[in-house]
Amino acid sequence: MNVHDEMSDNEVLRAASDSLSAIPMAGPPDVGPIMAKGRARRRRRLSSVAGLSVAAAGTALALGLTGVLGPARTAGTIQTASFTLVSNPNGTATLTINPKELLDPAALQGSLAQYGIPAKVTSGSFCSSDPTPAGFSQVVSSYPAGASTATPQNGVQPTITIDPAAMPAGTELSIGNFQLSSGEYSGQRQADFVLIDTGSYTCSSTPPDPNGLPDGYGPSDGIGLLYGGPGPAGS
Fold it and tell me: Could you list the residue range(s) of the whole structural domain that residue 119 is in?
């Protein structure tokens, strides 16, 4: 082999460099489209988060309006075997007692709460406060009218109208219901309505005097009703 046929190391490197320089190389990427795609993805994520927040707020509002988050006032009528409760346009509620049935305390207390009326309803006991809260006559009216109806009227269903807006702060309506089994009015049902202090009251299993009101309650402080029986003994 001729010595001139051999290439020096430098010549080999130059030849390789010339060959590589002939190969087309990609230029730096255009960052504009990449940044635009990133901004679009961020906008989609923010829109999704905002949509979830709006949906959550709407769900909370719907739940609140339907009473899931708390007691809600609804228009209409609640009817059970022992009573009917009607929501009136002026914000009051009218309770009509079925004289043939003893009041269901849990059902009545829950129904009153739906119309914004705080109440403690008991059967076989009666709760009262001392001193007596004022304002009962502005909260409750009855038919037949009067502080106490000792002699039931045949065919008349006792009716109570309650105005929750007139209830003094810190009070609730106490409703005690009894099935009388002795005395002059044996066989009658008795319901007594008064206001009590929510944080201070006592309860007794002794029915109030059918011809009056609990001790400490005057004529304008409560209502006592007799219903559902044949009337006083001997009548």
Answer: 77-227
